[in-house]
């Protein structure tokens, strides 16, 4: 059993209101339910931006944090923009200060699994481990477990719906795919974001790609001139995300909302 699974997690309600105990020795069938209770954090504060009034867009970044994320944070801070970072658990230990900075500067931290494995079709125990270990890693650094989760490769199924519901995680997909993991071209990344930007849209990029980070200043400057506010996922949905459901309903959907029942 990985050592991370023996980490202390919060039980009994909101951060600061519960108590910690070890979960590493719990039987498999009890761990998911226990962590579901543990992951009942206080929800983000009331949105600072009313996306029913403002033109809002959510920039999201996957697979970090890495050393280069610090440059991205500098850019976002200079433009007074917030984003959502979907973190890999395996990246946390070597980038604690960056993760702390993301949280301190008002960005939202999301779960993106521990090892970036394909979740659809994977054994239930493995899926739970990937999510729980990442929840614990982020909790230990920031003091608050995530309430948003991005499934690897955008793949979801009934099993993942159930697990994320139990763990108090809303599943976040996207509406604008920069394909920056493949096309590591700054101009192309910028072009795709600007062409796809609409109020309420969710943009996926990767802070592990310097070419993507380099595109962000022009993206922010151009969209700001068009009246956009750069918000976190929770702000985009007015703090009303539902655990286990998917936002938007399917990849490429221009309409935000939970997925229909499967």
Summary, kept brief:
The chain is α/β, with parallel strands linked by helices. 35% of the residues lie in helices and 16% in strands. 45% of the residues are buried.
Keywords:
262 residues; 3-stranded parallel β-sheet; disordered N terminus; 11 strands; 35% helix; alpha/beta
Provide a descriptive summary of the structure in words.
Helices cover 35% and strands 16% of the residues. With 262 residues, it is α/β, with parallel strands linked by helices. Strands 3, 4, 5, 8, 9 and 10 form a six-stranded parallel sheet that branches. Strands 6-7-11 form a three-stranded parallel sheet, with helices on one face. It has a two-stranded antiparallel sheet with strand order 1-2. The protein is globular, with a radius of gyration of 17 Å. 45% of the residues are buried.
Task: Compute the separation of the termini in Å.
Answer: 33 Å
Strand content: 15-25%
Provide the gyration radius in Å.
17 Å
Largest sheet: 6 strands, parallel
Number of helices: 10
Spans of 5+ residues with little confidence (pLDDT < 50)? 1-47
Task: Write down how many β-strands occur, each being a DSSP E stretch of 2 or more residues.
Answer: 11
Helical content band:
25-40%
Structural class: alpha/beta
Molecular shape:
globular
H/E element order: EEHEHEHHEHEHEEHEHHEHE
Could you tell me the mean pLDDT? 84
């Amino acid at each position: 059993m990985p050592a991370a699974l023996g980490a202390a997690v919060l039980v009994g309600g909101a951060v600061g209101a519960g108590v910690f105990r070890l979960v590493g020795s719990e039987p498999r069938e009890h761990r998911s339910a226990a962590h579901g209770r543990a992951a009942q954090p206080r929800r983000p504060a009331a949105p600072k931006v009313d996306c029913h009034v403002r033109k809002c867009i959510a920039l999201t970044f996957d697979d970090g944090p890495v050393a280069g994320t610090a440059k991205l944070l500098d850019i976002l801070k200079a433009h007074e923009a917030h984003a959502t970072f979907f973190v890999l658990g395996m990246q946390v230990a070597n980038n604690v200060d960056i993760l702390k900075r993301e949280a301190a500067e008002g960005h939202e931290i999301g779960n993106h699994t521990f090892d970036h494995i394909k979740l659809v079709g994977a054994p239930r125990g493995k899926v739970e481990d990937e999510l729980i270990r990442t929840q614990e890693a982020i909790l230990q650094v920031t003091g608050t477990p995530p309430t948003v989760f991005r499934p690897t490769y955008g793949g979801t199924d009934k099993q993942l719906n159930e697990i994320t519901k139990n763990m108090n995680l809303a599943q976040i997909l996207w509406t604008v795919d920069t394909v920056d993991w493949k096309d590591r071209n700054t101009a192309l990344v910028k072009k795709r974001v600007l062409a796809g930007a609409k109020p309420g849209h969710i943009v996926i990029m990767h802070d592990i790609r310097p070419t993507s980070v380099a595109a962000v200043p022009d993206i922010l400057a151009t969209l700001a001139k068009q009246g956009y506010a750069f918000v976190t996922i929770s702000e985009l949905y007015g703090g009303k995300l539902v655990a286990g459901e998917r936002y938007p309903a399917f990849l490429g959907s221009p309409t935000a909302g939970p997925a229909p029942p499967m």
